[in-house]
Design brief:
The protein is of the alpha/beta class. The protein is 29% helix and 22% strand. Helix 3 runs parallel beside helix 4 and helix 4 runs parallel beside helix 6.
Length: 282
């Protein structure tokens, strides 16, 4: 039986046609494949964290995510994001997973492009699903070899009273929040690196984390006018991009530097983020 044309379906068709026309006006295929995927955005976000020590008011964190070094993302693409992050002179740099796509053979070139970050200061990283789908140990080894610290269900104190913890990949069921937070003193301000953003509901319920930093969704890569992203990945559907309040915890979701196939971006530029931690205004 033929599908009934409902008002809702008709409106979606009309909106989709409008979006397609917009793509054509912007250069169509050329824009979404050659321009926007390489047009890095810098997003600066202030996050008020209750309990943040006074000496850490203004502490800055640069976040890069989802580099996806592979056939569609070159070493030079990663290097451009690194250059932007270095110009920010952040107190800390974090990397929130998915360094390669398709093969762990791309790990050394990705790590080489990231190496200037290690030379400049503290860098902490977690793994993502694509890292496990290739070879998580090879990815970890490549990053470690150039001086980057990969946390897999572990935590580090980065300043007096400020800890960064990271869980291993959630999708692949390697995340262990209890293990990641083991040894973190009560009352410390905790920032958690977790590749998949929808894990935030579980983390917020635990109550010990002030801010979760994630990637994974790429913001959908394509965001249609009036519709939003037509596709989002598993564990990246509830919180696709930007800053969210989840219970008493904050969550920031980075749109990523790279992409996966179809290798297009529209209305969803790749991103480097500068987060500034603030004491709440009373």
């Amino acid at each position: 039986m033929a599908h009934r044309i409902t008002r809702r379906r008709f409106l979606k068709w009309m909106l989709g046609s409008t979006a397609a026309a917009g793509l054509s006006a912007l250069g169509g295929v050329g824009y979404v494949t050659l321009v926007e995927p390489h047009w890095l955005a810098l997003n600066q976000v202030s996050v008020p964290l209750p309990g943040l020590p006074a000496n850490l008011d203004g502490f800055t964190i640069a976040q890069l995510s989802d580099l996806h070094r592979g056939l569609d993302v070159t070493q030079e693409d990663v290097a451009r994001a690194v250059e932007l992050a270095l110009r920010l002179r952040a107190d800390l740099v974090v990397l929130t997973g998915d360094y390669v796509t398709g093969s762990a053979e791309h790990a050394p070139s990705c790590a080489e492009a990231l190496s200037p970050l290690a030379a400049a200061g503290n860098v902490l990283a977690c793994l993502g699903n694509h890292d496990h789908w290739t070879d998580a140990d090879v990815i970890t080894g490549a990053l470690t070899e150039v001086g980057l610290t990969v946390l897999r269900n572990a935590a580090r104190e980065v300043a007096d009273g400020l800890w960064v913890a990271a869980v291993d990949d959630v999708w692949e069921r390697h995340a262990d929040l209890e293990k990641a937070l083991k040894g973190v003193p009560t009352g410390a301000t905790v920032v958690l690196l977790a590749h998949e953003p929808d894990y935030a509901d579980e983390v917020a319920a635990d109550g010990r984390v002030s801010l979760q930093l994630s990637g994974h969704s790429h913001g959908g890569q394509v965001r249609l006018p009036f519709i939003g992203p037509p596709f989002l990945p598993y564990l990246g559907r509830k919180y696709p991009a930007g800053l969210y309040r989840v219970g008493e915890m904050w969550l920031y979701v980075n749109r990523g530097v790279g992409l996966v196939r179809p290798a297009v971006r529209f209305n969803c530029r790749p991103e480097v983020t500068l987060l500034r931690l603030r004491q709440p205004v009373i």
